Amino acid sequence: xxxxxxxxxxxxxxxxxxxxxxxxxxxxxxxxxxxxxxxxxxxxxxxxxxxxxxxxxxxxxxxxxxxxxxxxxxxxxxxxxxxxxxxxxxxxxxxxxxxxxxxxxxxxxxxxxxxxxxxxxxxxxxxxxxxxxxxxxxxxxxxxxxxxxxxxxxxxxxxxxxxxxxxxxxxxxxxxxxxxxxxxxxxxxxxxxxxxxxxxxxxxxxxxxxxxxxxxxxxxxxxxxxxxxxxxxxxxxxxxxxxxxxxxxxxxxxxxxxxxxxxxxxxxxxxxxxxxxxxxxxxxxxxxxxxxxxxxxxxxxxxxxxxxxxxxxxxxxxxxxxxxxxxxxxxxxx
Amino acid sequence: xxxxxxxxxxxxxxxxxxxxxxxxxxxxxxxxxxxxxxxxxxxxxxxxxxxxxxxxxxxxxxxxxxxxxxxxxxxxxxxxxxxxxxxxxxxxxxxxxxxxxxxxxxxxxxxxxxxxxxxxxxxxxxxxxxxxxxxxxxxxxxxxxxxxxxxxxxxxxxxxxxxxxxxxxxxxxxxxxxxxxxxxxxxxxxxxxxxxxxxxxxxxxxxxxxxxxxxxxxxxxxxxxxxxxxxxxxxxxxxxxxxxxxxxxxxxxxxxxxxxxxxxxxxxxxxxxxxxxxxxxxxxxxxxxxxxxxxxxxxxxxxxxxxxxxxxxxxxxxxxxxxxxxxxxxxxxx
Lengths: 334, 334
Prior knowledge:
Chain A is α+β, with helices and mostly antiparallel strands. Chain A contains eleven helices and ten strands.
């Protein structure tokens, strides 16, 4: 189901994925907050035409069934804000690594996803897409400010670069706050997987730039790559420490998580994410065999509420989802 | 290790075991509390001689290594009080179903154990042993009171009959207090497995007679058998109810317990007993296959602290025991 996660990329043992998104607006239309439906339709057509048929398929949000829309959000292919408006749409590549969202908060949101610590590469692809579009449409741009955006927090580069990192050992050794708090000094923010205000489910954290003005894109990218690399190293040291100094408890935690996931008949999203996190740690430490870290990372995404309902092609209540989730986990974990 | 538990007996799905013990004293000696070591030695010799070689092997407590003594207590073959005195001893059959404890609280404590609801049978065997001894020694007996004992709570018949019953479904449906409290009206007491004041570990309860005077042995036995039979029926109804009305949660609880026991690397006695209790329920409901209820009941006994140390032939701290216990459980559960 999740096609963009690959078993490759730098620091893949800690960094699950990298993402770059660029906010852009067309100069000849009002910002989406002040637009008519007719103008939104024009923007959609302009952007789709600009992309041409370079491997992109385009969809209007109003044409996509409810569950599929949420599932795409859960897969990080589109944003939660995009599906709130019927006039919005998006174009995406078949492997879902690149998406151009249309009429989200801004006219255009270019997004590129990749596995592992791969911001330079994702930035390069996003930049190419940006150039492709810029050849066909005129962006709202100010010589002094940079790209103009609906929300001032995106002004300038319009870029938000982020990495999703898995920090179970830093959590277990109670170092996670100590390690993550200095990140703010560098103008970076730490969030849960589901964005601002959400907690870190399954020990997954998102680190992204707060500031979009002042620095060049390459500088921001390099800063996040550096810091993510340092945090990965600290997570690795914590894993090594636990393995060497507290092996029995470490193995116990991992195997119990494995035993529950292989046997439960009903499991909540939160518990499943927590247990998957330990199994992932076990795979990394080669304590759990016959499982692929990439398949496990996909499970984190596939056990989310809409994704489960999408598999079953029907709406399900919490209880039904918890039962189906347990079934998927029993089947998928080897 | 535990030889007296068999996969047979009435109401074996709920009643783990039945036990009858008779307190007796010799008329020509003071009670053990007021005895000299020399007299204790005489009593030991008298009783062993009286038993002859009718399948009994006799041991002085002082000759038995520390861990083995506690293990015999954990197996319910001898009582905790017996091992506190160096002058005490016991004779037991090879299958450990019958024990004669010597110089415990009373000169003689005859005990017979059996699987399932089998009090009539255990009483019959205890009575035969009692008659055998009475042919050779003179009991302290009063025409009006009955058998004289060190503690007045045993006066009369000197008999304590008890059954160990497994009530997980009554616990899960929160009916256990409602079902067990009327038992007191019939002069019966409910206790945890480890006797008075202990809690019901692994949903195991012990029901025994409080009163040893007034009624004949057969009357007491029949009363306990009746009540244990009724409680078993209620437990069965609760199991059926859960299976029919709450199957997913029921299976989830059972399989999670199974998954943890099959995977944990470290487990406390209390947690292990609780999880074994659910697996036992799963075997009874044929949800867990390939496991024998008898082997599982033996595990309840074999995972106790001294039994674990006895297997390893060395003293172990709590942490070492918890690791060894997890290993035994992973190996023994199929």
